[in-house]
Amino acid sequence: MNLALLASVLSLLATVAAQPYDHYDMGWVNGYRQGFNFQCPHGELLVAIRSYFSEKEGSDRLWSFECQPVPENLGEPSDCWWDDINRAGLEWTSTCTRNGLVAGVQSKYFESTLDREWQFYCCYYKRRCPYSCMKTTDVPEYYREEGEMVIPAYGYFIRGAQTTFSGVLRDRQWKYILCRLTDFDCEFENL
């Protein structure tokens, strides 16, 4: 084997080994400071969300999402749509309109606020209504930490989120709004 080639390979391996582990192999849907559009396959809903913060990368997060098929008794979604945009740099609460459930997320990064705007992709299942709704604890628990939320029990679905934004730390904490759906058709909208 050529000694120059061996030296170059060893040098490359040493460089890679010396770099800090920065969570680049976790199936992220975005790069830092990049927008993204994630939608679950038809008939599936969001069940897990993960993020990783980096101050040196514009105080931004990498994001990863997981979906799961809905229970058979819900059937196919009757309609899906992009709900209202939630602006960067602000605190907000957003639930899918028309009793919808979250089946996707899109986001755009803004250098001026070092934050993102958010929009949920919502799907509606017949005339089912949410009930037994609750909010998760803060995700992440503290600003600038890695965040992870997995639906805590079968039969709960993500309906929306409430967020707080720290203008000093340039990061956001989330409380996800989780609900069950009735097994029967209902005639009212549960806001």
From TrEMBL:
<comment type="similarity">
    <text>Belongs to the dermatopontin family.</text>
</comment>
<keyword id="KW-0964">Secreted</keyword>
<dbReference type="GO" id="GO:0031012">
    <property type="term" value="C:extracellular matrix"/>
</dbReference>
<feature type="signal peptide">
    <location>
        <begin position="1"/>
        <end position="18"/>
    </location>
</feature>
<dbReference type="GO" id="GO:0005615">
    <property type="term" value="C:extracellular space"/>
</dbReference>
<dbReference type="InterPro" id="IPR026645">
    <property type="entry name" value="Dermatopontin"/>
</dbReference>
<dbReference type="Pfam" id="PF14704">
    <property type="entry name" value="DERM"/>
</dbReference>
<keyword id="KW-1015">Disulfide bond</keyword>
<dbReference type="GO" id="GO:0030199">
    <property type="term" value="P:collagen fibril organization"/>
</dbReference>
<keyword id="KW-0732">Signal</keyword>
<protein>
    <submittedName>
        <fullName>Dermatopontin</fullName>
    </submittedName>
</protein>
